[in-house]
Amino acid sequence: MQEIYTPDKTFDKNDFTQGPLPKGEYENCIFKNCNFSDHDLSDFKFADCTFVGCNLSLVKLAKTALRDIAFRDCKMLGLRFDTCNAFGLAFTFDNCVLNHSSFYNLKIKKTYFKNCPLQESDFTGCDLTGSIFENCDLLRATFDTTILEKTDLRSSYSYSIDPERNTIKKAKFSFSGVSGLLDKYDIQIESIS
């Protein structure tokens, strides 16, 4: 079956659970309020596309190319970004629910996460150099052998990061968030008035 090439198209309120998006390459397209839930997007190619208000929960992403993609106001539960095509992989997330997602072993330097719940997401072995986590909930997110050099976590919360198991040189943390770097020591940190 021939793959299609689709440039500069807007998809609005499409329910791809009823009729699947044709496999192919999508460039500079906008997907607004579309439902991709449980859809198989394996081997698709997306470049310079924007997803707004879409449900992408449990979408399959095996060998999917995501190059310079903006996700805004999307529900993206349980996504395996670690199975994407790593070549040119680049995306930003603004107000997206990313709980239970995996970024295992990815090199996603300078990735921007804003107002995103990332509870129980996996960043093991991930290179997040220069990334920004702005106001993100990182409750039970896994950071192990993760490169967080120059990463900004000042406004994020609920994280637990072991400085001995992760590279955190020149990373930025808020004073209130420093306790997340000391969790493994099981100590009590209190402010005195």
CATH A-level architecture of the largest domain: 3 Solenoid
> CATH homologous superfamily of the largest domain, by name?
E3 ubiquitin-protein ligase SopA
- Strand proportion, as a percent range, falls in 15-25%
User: Which word captures the global form?
Assistant: elongated
User: What is the CATH class name of the largest domain?
Assistant: Mainly Beta
Number of domains: 2
Per the CATH scheme, the topology name of the largest domain is: Pectate Lyase C-like
SSE arrangement, N to C: EEEEEEEEEEE
Radius of gyration: 18 Å
**Which spans have pLDDT < 50 for at least 5 consecutive residues?**
none
Structure description:
The structure is a single chain. The chain is mainly beta. It folds into two domains: 1-73, 3 Solenoid (Pectate Lyase C-like); 98-186, E3 ubiquitin-protein ligase SopA (Pectate Lyase C-like). It contains no helices and eleven strands. The chain is elongated, with a radius of gyration of 18 Å.
